[in-house]
Amino acid sequence: MTLDDLPLRDDLRGQQPYGAPQAPLPIALNVNENTHPIPPAVADDIAESVAKAISGLNRYPDREFTELREAFADYLGHGVTPEQVWAANGSNEVLQHVLQAFAGPGRTAFGFAPTYSMYSLLTRGVGSEWVAGTRGPRFEIDSADAAEQVREADPDVVFLCAPNNPTGTPLSLEVIERVYEASRGIVIVDEAYFEFASDEAETALTLLPGRERLVVSRTMSKAFAFAGARVGYLAADPALVDALRLVRLPYHLSAITQAAAIAALRHSDEMLRTVDEIVGQRERISATLEALGYDPYPSGSNFVLFGGVDEPHETWRRLYERGVLVRDIGIPGHLRVSAGTEDETTAFLDALASIRDE
Ligand SMILES: *Cc1c(COP(=O)(O)O)cnc(C)c1O
């Protein structure tokens, strides 16, 4: 029995699922997690909140996750109100809700490739067509060119990844403004890595007033060191948020998830304390890779894409043998590595140097 024998949807035949390898290696730097564990005192407080929620698990949770929306609005600032906030099990589900409401069969979603691989998968999953635009030679996006591409493609949904995964490329507000003006559909700015951006980087939250088709999505999976809890969120016009209620499953955020996320947000300063340290390791990776003769790209995130790798898959395999997991994202001559703790980063850099010297 294979997939071919099943009455699978025609548009899913031949598709590959999301498949970052999950291997139990000591140095896992392949999916851009925050590799620092949650501080024990914070973990205790989260556990206490979850324990309280457990005694009420006989009832469905607050379908409107009101307290969590208030906490996210507080955290985001920039005048964002709870009515403008939506959340789900990871920002992947948040993005799926947007696509379910605003894309779907017969419609299109657009992004500037290479970009986050889940955009095309989620798009096809809701029966829409994925349209890939192009970037400049260093994966940057020029605002006039971007606006032209979007005008030409005329998509129902545009994804802008800021900074971009897998390249790390920062994105200016000017590009977002021009793309918004050039489009008639929903424009999603995915700020999954925003907390790692430089201090001068401006969030697209500042563009929300007056732009009712704009969505800014965030996640607790990266800077917040909360990937295992599965919590993502967005800010947008209250009417747009209302549209998402048409497609979400009832009670999609469990009482346990809500309790854990609310408790974590109470400690956002402590949860985010490792961000500066991670940014420091990112800069160290870039400098060391350059000294080793590789070609790292500027990054506003917690990972570095680097070129100059003659045989990416072979290099990936030899790092794997040394207990280091990085990401072969399928760009010829390139690999991507997440910035870990100082020790993890050292292990990666030493392993790579020893492979190069062999
Ligand atoms: C990691 C990542 C996410 C986060 O996904 P979650 O479902 O929130 O874990 C979203 N967007 C991009 C670009 C990412 O790299």
Condensed summary:
This protein has helices spanning 40-54, 66-76, 91-102, 117-125, 143-153, 173-182, 238-244, 255-266, 268-271, 275-291, 312-321, 342-357; strands spanning 27-28, 85-88, 108-112, 129-133, 157-161, 186-190, 214-219, 232-236, 295-296, 303-307, 324-325, 335-338. The protein has 358 residues and is an alpha/beta fold.
Structure characterization notes:
The strands form three sheets. This protein has a seven-stranded mixed sheet with strand order 2-8-7-6-5-3-4, sandwiched between helices. It is built from twelve helices and twelve strands. β9 (295-296) and β10 (303-307) form a beta hairpin. The model has no long low-confidence stretch (mean pLDDT 96). The chain is an alpha/beta fold and 358 residues long. α1 (40-54) packs antiparallel against α8, α2 runs parallel beside α8 and α5 packs parallel to α6 (173-182). It has helices spanning 40-54, 66-76, 91-102, 117-125, 143-153, 173-182, 238-244, 255-266, 268-271, 275-291, 312-321, 342-357; strands at 27-28, 85-88, 108-112, 129-133, 157-161, 186-190, 214-219, 232-236, 295-296, 303-307, 324-325, 335-338. It folds into two domains: 3-38 and 273-357, Aspartate Aminotransferase, domain 1; 40-268, Aspartate Aminotransferase, domain 2 (3-Layer(aba) Sandwich). The longest helix is centred in the C-terminal third of the chain and has 17 residues, at 275-291. The structure holds pyridoxal-5'-phosphate (PLP). Pyridoxal-5'-phosphate (PLP) binds at residues 32, 90-92, 116, 161, 165, 190, 192, 219, 221-222, 227, 232. Pyridoxal-5'-phosphate is lined by residues 32, 90-92, 116, 161, 165, 190, 192, 219, 221-222, 227, 232.
